[in-house]
Amino acid sequence: MYSAEEQRHLYDLSKELLYTPQADLFSEPPAERVEDLTRVLRYHEWRYYVGNDPVISDFEYDQLYKQLQTIEEAFPTLISPDSPTQRVGKDLMENAVQVEHLEPMLSLDNSYDAEDLNDFDESVKKLCKLDPDGDVEYCVEPKYDGGTIVLVYENDRLVRAATRGDGYVGDEITANIRTLRTVPLQAGFSAKGIQKVELRGEALIRKEVFDKINQARQEAGETLFANPRNAATGGLRMKDPKEAAERGLEAFLYQLGYAVDATGNDIHTNFHSHDESIHLLASLGFKTPLAEEKIQDTQKAAPFGGLTTKTCKNITEVIEFCQAWQEYRDEYPYELDGMVVKVNSLELQDRCGSTSHHPRWAIA
Asked: Which of 9, 10, 213, 241 has the fewest CB atoms within 10 Å around its CB?
């Protein structure tokens, strides 16, 4: 998302802003100061929440945030809807508004062993009229066990967020999603020719954060959550976004489901593969399966360098990858419900098509 040169500049700018005396806060045009503070805060949010690699302390981040807050309070007309200070908004309505997804979000068919995966591979080749002995490239990603979310960006700004619901209609939860630091309020889709886009992902709570939440609830005499998934889905639907922000939710985005240009033309077909679209999301600052945590295992080395995402050249590699990871599932920092296997080629995905229940080009 940021080049090495851009990162050096933003780091230096951060230090310059931090050393600005309070008395000099309004020494330059406020609009310029707001722009600088917004840029550096977005950068540090990305470093901390997406890259898990902060370069300033929490205290320093808070000082930059307070500078922006102070100027915005003095000049309310400079407050942008996607300002870092505007993540927490008004309460959700008592009865959530339901919204229709731009593209249906279908369920996934299930597999239970290597035989099921081989059958899936055979089915893909038949549907696409491919050589039965040839190779099909697949992407293998974690199947996150949290609350599914659907995000819509228009003109580079987050305009709507919803739950999965029944796959066609979900509950509108924009105010709560805006509190997630792993969700950019602004992303540069327009530079790629995309005017409106719909993304699919999962809201999760780290296992260690979940344990702390339950410990606090126990000390307060409150009912404990059964698992991180329940805590995550409940957090998405909380009436007060401030309470949702305290739930420790993070978002992984794993699919670009809809994309049109300024004239409404479908440009999803401009992408050749699933992993190409995921690399785009990662480059725009989203947390994706490409940027997930590595397993830290002190007993023996985790397979494949500890990464849980792989583009496999054939189903044999898929089976090997999934089997190798099965024993490390409990070591992962988030709850997983297995792996998802997707045909990598978007052209082959289109040729496979979907049933009314699930896409024929993916299996979990």
From this structure: 9
Q: What is the predicted pLDDT for the residue at 192? A: 93
What's the sign of the alpha-carbon dihedral 169, 292, 61, 68?
A: negative
Which CATH number describes the domain made up of 4-86? 1.10.287.610
- The boundaries of every CATH 3.30.470.30 domain in the chain are 106-363
Q: Which of 126, 143, 242, 313 is catalytic?
A: 143
Q: Where in the chain is the domain with CATH 1.10.287.610?
A: 4-86
- What is the rounded distance in angstroms from the CA atom of residue 66 to the CA atom of residue 54? 18
Amino acid 295: pLDDT: 56
Tokens of 41: 């805060």
Q: Residue 221: is it exposed, middle or buried by C-beta count within 10 angstroms (0-12/13-18/19+)?
A: exposed
Residues in a beta bridge with 310: 140
Specify the amino acid at residue 123. Answer: S
Listed as ranges, residues in the chain with pLDDT below 70 are 51-52, 88-96, 291-306
Q: Give the separation between CA 180 and CA 88, rounded to whole angstroms.
A: 9
Fold of 106-363: D-amino Acid Aminotransferase; Chain A, domain 1 (3.30.470)
Active site residue 143: yes
In eight-state DSSP terms, residue 143 is E
Contact 61, 14 (CB under 8 A): no
Q: pLDDT value at position 298?
A: 45
In tens, the pLDDT along 30-54 reads 899 999 999 999 998 888 777 667 7
Instruction: Pinpoint the alpha helices (H) of the chain.
Output: 4-18, 30-45, 58-74, 114-127, 174-177, 207-219, 228-236, 241-245, 274-283, 315-326, 346-352
Angle at which helices 30-45 and 58-74 cross, to 10°: 150
Nearest to residue 216, comparing CAs of 175, 247, 242?
Answer: 247
Q: How far is residue 34 from each of residues 8, 77, 79, 286, measured CA to CA in Å?
A: 20, 11, 9, 23
